[in-house]
Amino acid sequence: MQDNESAHPSVVDHERLSSLINSMADGVLAIDEELKIVLYNGSALNILDVNGSIAGKPIAQVLQPVTKDGDRVDVWSLIHSANTPMTTRDYLLEYDDRSRSALYLSIAPVHLGYGKQGVQGYVLLLRDITHEKSLEEERDEFISVISHELRTPVTIAEGSLSNAIYAANQPKMDNKTVLDALQTAHEQVYFLANLINDLSMLSRADRDNLVLDITQINMRALLEKMIEGFNRQAQEKGLELEVDYDPKLELLESGKLYVEEVLQNLITNALKYTQKGSVYIKAWPTEKGVSVSVQDSGIGISKVDQEKIFQKFFRSEDYRTRESSGTGLGLYVTMKLIHLLRSDLEVTSELNQGSTFIVHFVNLDA
Ligand code: ADP
Questions:
Q1: Distance 364 CA to ligand 1 centre (A)
Q2: Any idea what DSSP says for residue 58?
């Protein structure tokens, strides 16, 4: 059996322990029975944003967490209630400049002294989990947006297919009813396929591992091919879709797949957010490459929203935006691709007048 004396750590042990605690990324605070600080490390000072010694100070003076709603947490009661080790990820720390960080806090009751006479106290671990929390919130939002976006087309497609089956089973099958129902189901499945494309592009863009395959792009041919695909959509909405190529338009050296994706997103939006009038596309050569503008006479984007449209999941609150489906991912991905292509994007827009997106593509070295 060890007596109290021999159970004391040597000076070397003590130094080892201090350097171990000081090298920890987590903040460590040890407090005595009166809840005064007896030991702490540098990370604790960082997280609490204090300079100078905090030894001997009451914990409640140094650690002042708040709830999500900004209410002060009673640290005394919280610590006293920790009869066994407990952790919480529910609180925040508020700093003098009113900024906040999400806090991981673990409280463990311990014997701070050595041997039987040891003083009862607590060891607190603190970690700034702001980044993890925002990732969690983003993931939750992502799941909720995606499940909402999936539900509508799946419900419509399922309903239309069941109508088609019913109609096809009638003794006198009406071809038109069956075809209409199949057409609707097809459109919804097509929308789902596009959504999946957006999602896979988003996941690759977010992991920053997009690979650029630089080739010579005939911009006129590319735009002509794209417009062909958009013509039907424009006609259905009664919109004019026009393209104007500068006669001096030259080849662009860039990543064809991503140039096409950027233009596809901008033209899709222009047609989606325009109820009447036109979508006018123009392409011209510049000193550094090729610029393309996509101008629409649609609902426009307010000044406030213009600041937000490139954020992940942002969709305007305007009811006219909500009339058409979307995920708020298109422009986010577009901006990622534009950075990858080392190009620039300009937006000008006026509510109820229309919007113009101009992309300045630059030639890249192969
Ligand atoms: P989505 O179209 O799926 O909602 P985007 O990321 O492509 O997502 O666009 C984000 C938001 O920006 C849209 O929801 C809409 O509010 C606004 N927006 C984008 N393009 C236009 C446009 N041409 N005209 C009006 N609003 C637009």
A1: 28
A2: B
HSE toward the beta carbon, residue 120, CA cutoff 13 A: 8
Ligand 1 binding pocket mutation candidate from 148, 237, 262, 309 (most atoms within 8 A of CB): 309
| Distance from residue 305's CA to the centre of ligand 1 (Å) | 10
With a 6 Å cutoff on the Cβ, whether 327 touches ligand 1 is yes
Ligand 1 centroid distance, CA of 314 (Å): 8
User: Identity (one letter) of the amino acid at 334?
Assistant: T
What are the distances in angstroms from CA 156 to CA 159, 160, 183? 5, 6, 11
State whether the beta carbon of 271 lies less than 6 angstroms from ligand 1. Answer: no
Helix (H) or strand (E) holding 6: helix 4-7
Which residue out of 239, 269, 314, 327 has the highest number of ligand 1 atoms within 8 Å of its CB and is therefore the one to mutate? Answer: 269
Q: How far is the CA of 102 from the centre of ligand 1 (A)?
A: 32
Question: How many CB atoms within 10 Å of residue 62?
Answer: 17
3-state DSSP percent of the chain in helix, strand and coil, to 5: 45, 25, 30
pLDDT tens series, the chain, 366 aa: 344 444 555 677 777 878 888 888 999 999 998 999 999 999 999 999 998 899 999 999 999 999 989 999 999 999 989 888 999 999 999 988 888 999 999 999 988 765 555 568 999 999 999 999 888 887 887 888 788 778 888 999 999 999 999 999 999 988 999 999 999 999 889 888 878 877 887 887 777 777 889 999 999 999 999 999 999 999 999 999 999 999 999 899 999 989 999 999 999 999 999 999 999 999 999 999 999 999 999 999 999 999 999 998 888 988 898 888 788 889 998 999 999 999 999 999 999 999 999 999 999 986
